Amino acid sequence: MILLKHFRGRGAFCNPRILGGVVLSLAAIGLGVFAWAASPVVITVNTLSDETTPNNGLCSLREAITNANDNAQTYPECAAGSGANAITFSVSGTITLGSTLPNINDDLTIDGGGQSITVSGNNSVQVLAVNTGKTLSLHNLTIVNGYRPNYGGGIYNQSGTVNVTNSTFSGNTAPGPGLIGSPGGGGGIYNNGNGATVNVTNSTFSGNSASFGGGISNNGGTVNVTQSTFSGNTASFSAGGIYNLQNTIIANSTSGGNCFNTGGGTITADSDNLADDNTCGGATVTTSAQINLQPLATNGGPTQTMALGPGSVAIDAGDETVCAVPPVNEFDQRGVARPFDGDSDGIAVCDTGAYEVAPPPCDNNPPNITAPSNITTEAQKKKVNGQKGAFVSFSVSAFDNEDGPVTATANPTSGTFFPVGITTVVVTATDHCNNCATKTFTVTVRN
User: Fold this and answer.
1) CB of 96 within 8 A of CB of 108?
2) Of 40, 54, 275, 352, which is most buried with the most CB atoms under 10 A?
3) Contact call for residues 353 and 247 (beta carbons, < 8 A)
4) Given this model, what pLDDT does residue 83 score?
């Protein structure tokens, strides 16, 4: 199945400043280690080279996977594998593969947290394959340019479990024809067989292609996609199994529609998902322009993401009950805290997709207030509650260099009855970092 899932408020003078701004969660992006349920044996990769040279002091990804598979120290440069294994990195950059990495035949986590790690198939080889009954968990990684003619340019999952979190798949292909002339399927991931499960959370699939299922192709298994963004793939999903979509964007497919049912498949998506065609179950249908996804780019965090442009209908459009619980846990792909009131309606709701529109960084500069100069007017003839005075109207506004226009509040307010004499009006304005500005002027009512 595919499942799709989803802050605000501000008196006469300023309150003390409270620090605010973008929150990057260490729990979400890791400091080299993801928060695992059990303590694994950690094997640290210290080179970007795809090599297996013995006794050279370099532990490559290929060697680390081999040790994890063997539950042994097959390569002495890497820690020995044993039971639950986790691979982390002490380097950043791109690992370009000369051949497909060893098939995953023991449960394994690969976590790029604390670094920026890209694994590339160099447009010539498949990146990874998972054997029956085994679990591969990928965190904070980018998988690019994987290639396999028939199925699974990025990953081929044969009746195993693949968990993808805070990661990006881009430029992976399975173009076909494959064996005995079969079409290509699953440019990003091919999920095959009874019991095969793929769980995608807070991740981005962009520019992947195949004859069908450019993003993910599902043949008889289950695919759960939560709080993720699929854009610019050829037929993002093809369903011969079960898809559950939650708080996910599926748009801009270059051919084949966003979701393509090959027969016997089920695509479940409620209205908290967004699509720019009507092929993805109950997803809300809108236009690509309204979704306004920005190009895949470095927007913070260890992987590239697709930001939401101004006015995107995905802003504050998610289901908050999905965002608040695992596996999302109120963070986006970059580790930025969700939710933020991106549409400024006073209610914070998480955005649909892998990216949360966040407040600009905090500075120490308060807003600039525009208010009238001192006002002098004559009392009206008719008294109000036994007092002589006048009703006085004026306008105030405020602009912040980071937030743009912000609310300016006057006390007394415009249109108030001012008694004869001099009254001081206090205007305040506060930005999202709680930098507060105050400006005063007087209203003089002459008898």
Assistant:
1) no
2) 352
3) yes
4) 86
Are 423 and 312 contained in the same domain?
A: no
| φ/ψ bin of 67: left (φ > 0), alpha (ψ from -120 to 50), beta (otherwise) | alpha
pLDDT, residue 26, reads: 26
Question: Which of these three, 323, 345, 377, is where a domain ends?
Answer: 323
Q: How far is CA 330 from CA 173, 272, 337, in A?
A: 32, 16, 6
pLDDT of residue 237: 64
Torsion (CA) 213, 217, 223, 224 in degrees, nearest 10: -20
- The secondary structure of residue 212, as a DSSP letter, is B
* Distance (Å, whole) CA 302 – CA 166: 9
Q: 222 and 197 in contact (C-beta within 8 Å)?
A: yes
Q: Can you give the pLDDT at residue 23? A: 29
| Confidence at residue 240, expressed as pLDDT on a 0 to 100 scale | 55
> Are 439 and 427 spatial neighbours (Cβ–Cβ below 8 Å)?
yes
Joined together, the tokens standing for residue 359 give 């407040």
Do 269 and 375 belong to one domain?
Answer: no
DSSP string, 362-394: P-SPPPEEE----EEEEPPSS-BTTB-EEEE--
CATH code of the domain in which 426 resides: 2.60.40.10
Q: Which domain holds residue 379?
A: 368-446
* Residue 241: per-residue pLDDT: 67
Residue 185 structure tokens: 């399927």
Q: Which residue has the tokens 């790690």?
A: 117
Same domain, 133 and 242: yes
Residue at 324: amino acid letter: A
Domain count, the chain: 2
Is 216 within a domain? yes
Residues of the chain with pLDDT under 70: 1-38, 178-182, 236-241, 261-264
44 forms beta bridges with 88
Asked if residue 228 lies in contact with residue 207, where contact means CB atoms within 8 angstroms, the answer is: no
The model's pTM: 0.77
Residue 95 contacts residue 74 (beta carbons within 8 Å): no
Q: Assess whether 291 and 382 both reside in one domain.
A: no
Please give the pLDDT value at position 211.
84
